[in-house]
Amino acid sequence: MNSFQTALLFPPVWYYPNTPAEVAYLAAYLRTKGIEPYVRDLSIEMFDLILDDDWLKNIYHRLLQEWQSLDAKNHLSQQEQARYHALTPVAITGKYVVEEVNRAKNVMRDPACFYNYRSYWHARQVLEQACTLISTAFAPTRITLFNYQMQYDERSFRQVLQAIQATKEHPFLSILYSRWLPDILEKEFDLIGLNVTHPDQIIPALTLAHVLKKEGSKAHITVFGCLEDQFSFTHILDCLETGDASPLFSLIDSIIVYECERPFTRLAEVLASGKNLDDVPNLAYWNNGKMHVNPICEPEDIQALPAPSYKDFPLEKYFFPERVIDYLISRSCYWGHCSFCSIGAPRRSYRCRKVNNVLDDLASIQTQTQARFFRFRDQILSPSYLSQFAQGILDRKLNIRWTCRARFESGFTVELLRKLRQAGCIAIWFGLESFSERLLNLVKKGTKRETIEKVLENCVQAGIKARLLTIVGLPTETEQEAHETRDFLIRHHKQIEDFSYTPFILFRQSDMAKNPAHYGITTLNYPDEGMLAYYLDYTTSSGMSPDEIQQVSQDIASELKKYFPSHFLIPTHRYLYMEHYGAGFTDAVSKEEEEPAIEGEFLEWRPKVPSWILYGTIHYNYDFIDEQQQARDKAPNASNKEAITDPLTPQEVLLVYNIETGERWQMEKDAAFLLASSDGKTTIRSIIEQASNIFNISMDESQQVCSDFFKEALGLKIIEFV
Hints:
Elements: E1 6-10, H1 21-32, E2 38-41, H2 42-50, H3 53-71, H4 78-109, H5 111-114, H6 117-137, E3 142-143, E4 148-149, H7 157-165, H8 171-186, E5 191-195, H9 202-214, E6 220-224, H10 246-249, E7 254-256, H11 261-273, E8 283-287, E9 290-293, E10 324-327, E11 330-331, E12 351-352, H12 355-369, E13 373-376, H13 383-396, E14 401-406, H14 414-422, E15 425-433, H15 437-442, H16 449-462, E16 465-472, H17 479-491, E17 498-503, E18 506-507, H18 511-514, E19 521-525, E20 535-540, H19 546-560, H20 571-581, H21 585-588, E21 607-608, E22 613-618, H22 622-634, E23 653-658, E24 664-668, H23 671-676, H24 684-694, H25 699-715, E25 720-721
Parallel strand pairs: 1-2, 1-5, 5-6, 6-7, 10-13, 13-14, 14-15, 15-16, 16-17
Antiparallel strand pairs: 3-4, 7-8, 8-9, 11-12, 18-20, 19-20, 21-25, 22-23, 23-24
Keywords: Iron, Iron-sulfur, Metal-binding, S-adenosyl-L-methionine
GO cellular component, one term: cytosol
Pfam families: Radical_SAM (PF04055)
């Protein structure tokens, strides 16, 4: 098969931006079968390309021209006000963001800068503002460091096809045509595998497939992926009788359901030899006007799998100061009863790799990547397995740090957790879901509340951090039950390092979707062309309404942030900081800085605007536009739409942004002179004299105005004194 060319591509965007483990496993497996794949993580490549000054500056200048055109108008219509609202922050902050974005990326990758919290936090905000700039250019698409969300429902073929054609809303298309397509087409691949593990990848993956075929690729394009917990194309097996798959198979040639190692290898062999696709296990494909699904084979023996290969990934481009590797010890879930979950569906049976094999893999990966930090992406690992695993690490003296996921089980004793900590465990992610006794029983967690509290206490004693995964809006959940979970998190906030608070999704392959009446679900609503509908809309007989869930979720999340001061950190970044600073972690990431003492007479102070404070004069009342826009966003169909003045006439104001905190202030336009004069060299006395002349006011009045402004600005941290 030397002349047969195979590619494994990981489309954007995965919400845990790191090395895609499933691609690493398949690449290594194919090599044992004599197939050398071409491997690319297009997700991290996309972020590296779009978060770049060369790419951003053209977008910024285009947006700036659009804003200047609106700002110069004599009035703004309602539609123009909405666009002006989005463009104004970019107009004021964009130049700075473009200039700083490359440095910000380097901060994330350089230990000397990353572990300086002020430098880290500034870089993080610059990158997020860069994403905002891109989102504004491709609106209404929203891009963050973790998401790629278009206005189209990825569950609908019709809307996916619309998204593929929406060139003005689809930055992935721009990158694909300008940077990737020529290289991929030139290699003339025979087989291209697209690894899709998250919903945000659906539209980019199908866009990639569409463009490749449109531009002349002769490759057989297959989609695979089942080792993560958010999405798997395996759910199409539920649609054999009810869904029309022809639109999907107009974009791709096949889908591999369940685990991919054996089926993908066989697909390559069959294509290379010209045999029929019906000889490929686990393959779904279109033939003679209908979808065929070949017999399902047993997955590869997990003990026989080679160590995953990470040599193909650009490890230097991930946003970590040291190598961080994702690894899977097991497949599926040994518990497998949670009624809200669809993890078991695409993987069929739970298998766990033997400890010695895992340790061999980790040693091999360390040699290959120099990685010290591992994220074990297993759905859960048992106390008994973790005990053996930790002992193996200690016996071999492996120098690694790691995190994993687990259930709340009584087996997590203080003794075991101390052993795990000694073996390098930093944190365990526990699935709490809810602290309501009724809901825990409803979702079949098999967890007792006293066990939850005891395990948290044991984690604290052992020095292991606990991250709790919770869900809001479970079917029939009441506001009181949501508050039970909130109160539990607050009560134990000193024992919990962090939490996630995720809105409930009714996964199509979950027991809740298969037996809705048992869970109080009264109706299930399928999107049009529902073959892609990995989750379903629904109604319930009792509990909170969707609007109530949204409001309660926002209120609780806002309240919880008060008790979790490091919640704003990306989880993996938090663990890296913990290891770096140890007991000094909390002090290292404190946002509060001691105010420097300012000596001497006030009039001799020299004010200076920090580099992260950006400002500019604009010709419309931004606070008013913002207030009206928020009203429309909260109730888009309500009569308050009529409350927006149309047209809006000019009113020149000064807008000030703190790029590190996201705060914004609107001021009188004359304040622009005072900020422009705050250069760190000019005294307040001199500024008062200049203001008196420029604004034709008395010295006494100028002193009063300037003194009031600078004292207020100091309190807002808009200026500092040198």
